[in-house]
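During the first year of the project, the team set up a workflow for recording each protein of interest as an amino acid sequence followed immediately by a discrete structure-token representation. This format lets reviewers and collaborators read both layers of information side by side without switching files. As required by the reporting guidelines, we include two representative entries from the current panel. The first entry is reproduced here exactly as it appears in our internal archive.
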Amino acid sequence: MHKTDVDIPPSVRKRLIHLFGLIEKEFESVYQENVVLQEKLESLAEKMNEKFLTTEQFQVNSKQKPPTGQKLKTADKLKAQTSKIVSSFKSPSAGNCQFVKEYGGHRDGLWDLALPRTGQPVIGTCSADHTARIWCIETGTPLLQYTGHMGSINSIKFHPNKDLALTSSGDQTIHIWQAAVNLDNLRDRESDDTETEDDQVVPILRTPSCTFLGHNGPVMASDWLLGGDQIITASWDRTANLYDVETSELLNSLTGHDEELTYAASHHSQKLVVTASRDTTFRLWDFREAINSVSVFQGHTDTVTCAIFTSAGLGGEDKLVSGSDDRSIKVWELRNMRSPITTIRAESGVNRFAIASNGVIAIPHDNRQVMLYDMSGQRVNRIPRTARNRHRRMVTAVAWSEDNPFANLFSCGFDRLALGWSVQLGKD
């Protein structure tokens, strides 16, 4: 007989815990060294790119004739390549980017953030610390903290026209809770010169308005369907569930993905839903007819991390944009999904991106950067990474708020911070 359960002596157990602690510290030290080296490499790469660009621009602008005997075809090819390099640095859709605000207070990494559609100057964040927060955009003051979940909160969305928030969690539940905040109280607090940051007490909400059950695994994402009467959810149990908001009833469980789901989003004006999965596919679910239909798309080679609908850019036609850990973003025309109309190749895994009304895609990456591209795949800018105002861990999500005069782009990451940016957006 073989004894499967072996009791470890207390002295040995204590020794092992001590050794594992030393290993953890060593890994943390190595990680910090790698961060410093990566920043040096990025700085050197930027300097080399600038030097190369300057040289190529001089060649393009120079009126000197090519050396005698050089083939015209080769010269034309070099000129075309040079012009392409130079044009890739032009910014027709996004101009200057500036850091404006930091939102700090969570005790663990942030998974997602959202802006209300009602126009309130607030931002919502959710974290692995089991909480969600609502902040004043301009002051960075926390206005409300939601503590109703028992696990990591993986996504947050605001209702289309009500002060309600929708959160999904690792505790296998989805909650709707009251997200109304009193900005008048905030102004009173700002006028009190004697109050310090330590004195500020964040109001806490512990009870949801609605709780949705039915998943057998962590819920990674959820969204409101058109009108806000139904919600769609995506879970690691490989299903997407459709619920009625008023009754909390499970209306439909969507199956078919071969691996865990990572994201779900709804169309802004039609009853269409897209789900993304680790099985490298995303699925388009059509609820416009009595008999629902589904289409499967296999354009990626790794986990699809995000997929959203948009009508921005490229003629204003309905499109679906997907992002993946295979380091690519693909733009698909909704009426003809046979192949992507644009493919953007990134330097790192793609997380939860966002698209502005003029078609600028803000892409958060595993390598701590946020890149800006247009719908045609041209890079138009990058969020600055100064020594102080930057993310120090992977950037998990971004969101646009174009009507806000203070900051119009927000990012969050696993460094426990959300950051506000002011980005100059041009016309489409």
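The second entry, processed by the same pipeline in the following quarter, appears below.
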Amino acid sequence: MNMPAPFIDIITSNTHDIPPPQVDFSAPPPYDVAANSKLPTYEEVQREKQMEGDGPIQMPAPPPRHSTITAFVTVEPPESSTDHLDPENSLLGTDVMFLTSFFVAFLFNWIGFLLLMCFCHTVASRYGALAGFGLSLAKWTLIVKHSTELASHENSWLWWLIMAFGILICVRAVIQYLNIKRGWRLLSGTAQERLLFFY
């Protein structure tokens, strides 16, 4: 294929007129360089600014440990109860949470149990709700057995079975909560989170 001479002249003259590419320093560095470089910490940058003479930069002081009067009543926990406020123990909950959720699930039956399971995210409250639901199941079995005509001699074994199942759920939840509470510090973080789902 023969090309006309003027077209070849245009191609060769354009290749000689193109300058080499310019280095763009505003572009980000390649990933290898960025991933392997170590950035200074906040404290190092502040020290460097102070050494350059930009003026003294004051680091924020920690809040004071004494209680301040900002409301009618200020409750400050004693020094011995700092382990209850530990984020590690926030997943476990307290005995008060266990008893409160037990009574809510016992009084409001399956509705209380479901609400507690949805809105309470501690091991104590979930196991308390399970124990309250088990005892509520036994309570309602006795109520239905003695107040309706459904209870006959032929199916009395069924009522005893349902009531025993409810008591078994309650006792199992209480014992399991006490065992979890006793060995809480020995469990890893993932094992602690798994206990929220009754494993």
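For the second entry, the following points were noted during internal review. The chain has eight helices and no strands. The radius of gyration is 35 Å. Both points are flagged for discussion at the upcoming steering committee meeting.
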